[in-house]
Amino acid sequence: MTFADYLATRPERWGLVLDPPLPARTNMERDEALLTSPVPVLRLYSWQEPTLSLGCFQKDAFPGWPCVRRPSGGRALWHADEITYALVLPESGRLSVREAFCGVTRGLAAALRALGASEVETCGADHIPPGRDNPSCMAVTRLGELSARGCKLAGSAQVRRGNALLQHGSLPRRLDRENLRRLWGDGQQVIDLQALGLVDLRPEKLARELGRVWEVIWEEPDHGSANPDLATTGAVDPISSPGRCDP
Fold first, then answer.
1. How many domains does the chain have?
2. Is-contact 30 42, C-beta < 8 A?
3. Has 56 been annotated as catalytic?
4. Full residue range of the structural domain in which residue 64 is found
């Protein structure tokens, strides 16, 4: 099944959650809670404090850094001044991991181009630097990931629970270069929305363009407090909970 085929089978109206900055653990709990939704849901949010998120099976080798574990796989990602997206696709078991990943990122790229970032594209091949296994998500570029001017723009990861798939990722407004240098050193080829002329991008505008790209109508935005199911989810324990972490 292609991503376009999946879109054709889904209802026209999708859920939309626009959250204020929240604590790191709450953000991951809310993302994971979306996996129970019977309809596709897009959540856009940010972080109360800069935080390093770790993949669900990644070793915590960052003493002294504020960390949270994601329900998804992948490598460590530093969250600071950004828009974070989370998209849940129910009944998506026939979508391959790669097809779903590329379908979502193609939509994001089209929306960002429509908003004025004409250089945004999706990568045509994997690029994994030689040498030791780098724990940083931004050091590795996979097929379909968002990039511009030869630099990686967004880090994204997935988890599948039954027939539902969650993909979430980070769109940095301004890169926190000081802390990125402290964490990973120099040499990472990364870019932010500021460099592309979208430093003031609001989540509402991104959602509007994604709705046009995917030809869906967003339900009335949920700004957090009106959704008790998302506000009262249990603690995230992705290592012991069922599911497959990709990529």
1. 1
2. no
3. no
4. 3-127+134-246
